[in-house]
Amino acid sequence: MCGIGVQEPLLVSELPYGLCDSCGSVTLNPQAMLDGAGERGRYLKHNNSLADRGYRAYLEAFLDGILNFEGLERDSIQRVFDYGSGPSPALVALLGLRGFDARGWDPYFDPHGEGFEGGADLVTCLEVAEHFRNPVEGFRGLSGAARPGGTIAVATHLLSSDREETERDFPAWWYRQDPTHVTFYTRGGLEAIAERAGLSLLGSTGSNTYIFRRETVE
Ligand SMILES: [Zn+2]
Asked: How many alpha carbons lie under 13 Å from residue 75 in its C-beta half-sphere?
């Protein structure tokens, strides 16, 4: 997964996963992944709009966590790019309401969404990294959307760094049971993969959001 370890087979409910013996991250084997049409159909069932108060509160909390992150200069953030904005780009709409210059991109629903010339100040990736079929490629996409020195915020649920815990808890984990979730990171795995894309992990906001900086020299 991180490019260092070997994938050890892990069979869960007849689904073939690989557990990296270096970083402990888990990926579903490609032949067991949904095809593009199946995946798109699942995403269309998510009804995530700003009109839903609970969902809006969740987005506000995600943004506030990032903007209040220690060491982040809030004033330096104007241009925000949402990577994987989904069928109804609610986060892009909310960012616009809050005065940011916001754009989004989605491989299924907005494939022609364009980034900012020179890169965004902040790239958001909310509940998207667990869908990455090729995590290093995914993180390179995030890195490429940010300006050098820019911030990348990735929200995903992590596996335990304790391998025995992963082997015990992974089969029944609710996060695993969404068939579009194919990549599950440990903190170490997340850090190692991001590093290969020129990103340094700065810390987390406490609500499953991990903050990275795009290095100025790769
Ligand atoms: Zn690994």
From this structure: 0
